[in-house]
Specification:
By secondary structure, the protein is of the alpha+beta class. It has one domain: Nuclear Transport Factor 2, Chain: A (Roll), CATH 3.10.450.50. Helices cover 22% and strands 33% of the residues. The protein has a four-stranded antiparallel sheet with strand order 1-2-3-4, with helices on one face. Strand 1 and strand 2 form a beta hairpin. The chain is globular, with a radius of gyration of 16 Å.
C-alpha cells in the first residue's frame, strides 16, 4: 500500500473518487471548479450540475451561491444546519440545450436524512451569461412515492 492509499483509508469517509458519480478523481472532476490554484469554469450545464451536487455533498455553500443565477439565488442555504443529510449518489437522466445559452438537466439525487432514504427528481434550468453557466430553478417532474 502506498503512503497515499494509506492516507486515504485513514481519512475514512472521503474517498478521492468524485461524489458526482463519474469514475474520476475529485480534484480532476468537480474539484477543478470548486477552487484551488486554477479555478476552471464548468463548460456545460451538466458539468455544472455535477459540480453543484458535489458541492452539496461537501457543504460548499459559497460555490453553490456563486453558481446560482442572481435572479433566483437565495440569501443563504444554511447548509451548516443541514448536517444530517447524507448524499448517496447522482444520476443524470437528460441534458438538453434549449437555446443558444440555455439548457435543462434532469437528474435524480439520492440522500438519507436520519437513516431514511429520499430521492430528489428534478429538471433544472440553466442559463449561460458571459461564458458562465448558472443554475436558475427546477421543476419536479413527478412526485416519487417514497413515503
Ligand atoms: Zn465530479
Amino acid at each position: 500500500m502506498s503512503r497515499k492509499q494509506a492516507f486515504s483509508s485513514l481519512s475514512g469517509t472521503f474517498s478521492s473518487l468524485c461524489p458526482c458519480g463519474k469514475s474520476a478523481d475529485y480534484l480532476k472532476c468537480c474539484g477543478r471548479f470548486h477552487g484551488g490554484e486554477r479555478v476552471e469554469v464548468a463548460p456545460d450545464a451538466e458539468t455544472l450540475m455535477r459540480s453543484r451536487y458535489t458541492a452539496y455533498t461537501l457543504g460548499l455553500e459559497p460555490y453553490l451561491l456563486a453558481t446560482w443565477h442572481p435572479d433566483t439565488r437565495p440569501e443563504s442555504l444554511q447548509l451548516s444546519e443541514d448536517k444530517a443529510t447524507r448524499w448517496l449518489g447522482l444520476e443524470i437522466k437528460r441534458h438538453e440545450m434549449t437555446g443558444e445559452n440555455s439548457a435543462i438537466v434532469e437528474f435524480v439525487a439520492r440522500y438519507k436524512i436520519a437513516g431514511r432514504a429520499h430521492r430528489l427528481h428534478e429538471t433544472s434550468r440553466f442559463v449561460r451569461e458571459d461564458g458562465r453557466w448558472y443554475y436558475v430553478d427546477g421543476e419536479f417532474p413527478a412526485k416519487d412515492g417514497s413515503k
